[in-house]
Amino acid sequence: MHVISHRHLSVVASVVLAVGFLLSSIPLTAQAVTCTITRDLQLGVTGDDVKCLQEYLNSNGFVIAESGPGAPGKETGEYKALTKAAIIKWQEAKGILPASGYFGAKSRAAFSGTSTAKPTTGSGATGEALVKELLDKLATLKGQTGSTTKPVTTVTTKPVVTTDDAAVRKSFVTLLTAYDAVVEEADDAERDLAADAEDALDDARQLLFLAMKAYFSNDLTKTKNYLTRTESTLEDALENLEGDDEKDEANDLIDEVKDRIDEVEDEIDQADEDGEATSEAEDILEEAEEALADAEEAYDEGDYDDAIDSAEEAEDLLDDALDAIGESAGADVEDKLDDARDELDNAWDKVDEAMDNDEDVGDAEEYLEEAEELLDEAEEALDEDDEDKAEDKIEEALDVIEDALDEF
């Protein structure tokens, strides 16, 4: 496994541009024009040497503009922002550092001996030289990513232009751009790719290469098949990459919760030593620990969404535990007892009203008397600081009150 570098991205970007130009300009002829550049070039300069360099860039996969000034056949001889951007891509592909767009001594040395392939329309031409250069770029890309497949570097036929051809050409550029985007997504993550995502990207590279071979062998059916498979593998790569992001997020969140539990536990212990009420905080802390256990179990089962949800729940409970320091659980139980007595009073009112209307209330009175006894027992338990028993008696009383109301 490896981190996909910015150099890798630059190669992919150059291939995208090369394909975009190649597939939009077939058929073509190649008319070589030698460039001689003897000075440094930068933003603002003009001249024939700039125009010659622009022609070279446009003809070799580093297109300055798809249309308008700077586009193939419309080179201006003016070194502006679009020319600089194209030179930066060329420098990255050539490994020239820094790739800043300044065309100095290093760039002139790398450029020395090259020539343009100025595109013109014509009949009977194959565009073989430009196709061979594209395939050589692909071979370089495959070499950087560890592929052992022997690339094809000789093309002797030109694509047949059919009614499907425009759609196929568009698919090439779309998928190469999508591939570039997935690779950039991985690079932005600044970590090694998951094995599944890495495998899917490798498959996409191979399928794109096979699609190009099929295209230049006049087999559009096979080309479209490879392009469809490429799209599917790119989707797999992105899904696996996103899945790996969720796994990392879940793992980091679980670690954070573990650390926070230790911190909250220390704060509760300190509060207890200081004589503050901590029973409620301790109960909530136990709930947080249970939520963390659920998160770890979900993580082990590969359910990273659930792991994140449970870990976030644990975080919220830890906040509640800190807020509960100094609060007495008994106060809550007393509130529940008061509410239960209100429920009992309301129930007695309903029974009395039903009896006044000569309705049969069954055993409702007996049930309400039982509920009253249970609430008295709950109050006694509170006096003895037995909050658990008090809550149990309150719950029993509420159930009995409900039974009483069901009698009529």
Structural notes for this entry:
- 68% of the residues lie in helices and 3% in strands.
- The protein has 408 residues and is mainly α.
- Among the domains are: 246-324; 329-405.
- Helix 1 (6-24) packs antiparallel against helix 6.
- The two termini are 74 Å apart.
- The model is unreliable at 1-32, 115-135 and 137-163 (pLDDT under 50).
Overall spatial form: elongated
Briefly note the structural class of the backbone: mainly alpha
**What is the number of helices?**
13
Order of strands across the main sheet: 1-2
Mean pLDDT: 75
Distance between the termini: 74 Å
The amount of beta strand, in percent, is under 5%
Characterize the biggest β-sheet.
Answer: 2 strands, antiparallel
Order of helices and strands: HEHHHEHHHHHHHHH
Name the quaternary structure. single chain
Q: Residue share in helices?
A: 55-70%
Instruction: Give start-end ranges of low-pLDDT stretches.
Output: 1-32, 115-135, 137-163
Number of strands: 2
| Cα-atom radius of gyration | 38 Å
Record keyword descriptors for this entry.
mainly alpha, single chain, about 5% strand, about 400 residues
Quick overview of this protein structure:
This protein is mainly alpha-helical and 408 residues long. The protein has helices spanning 6-24, 48-59, 81-94, 105-111, 128-144, 165-188, 195-215, 220-273, 279-300, 304-324, 329-356, 364-383, 387-405; strands spanning 29-34, 115-120.
List the helices and strands and how they pair.
Blueprint lengths: L5 H19 L4 E6 L13 H12 L21 H14 L10 H7 L3 E6 L7 H17 L20 H24 L6 H21 L4 H54 L5 H22 L3 H21 L4 H28 L7 H20 L3 H19 L3
Helix pairs in contact: 1-3, 1-5, 1-6, 6-7, 6-8, 7-8, 8-9, 8-10, 9-10, 11-12, 11-13, 12-13
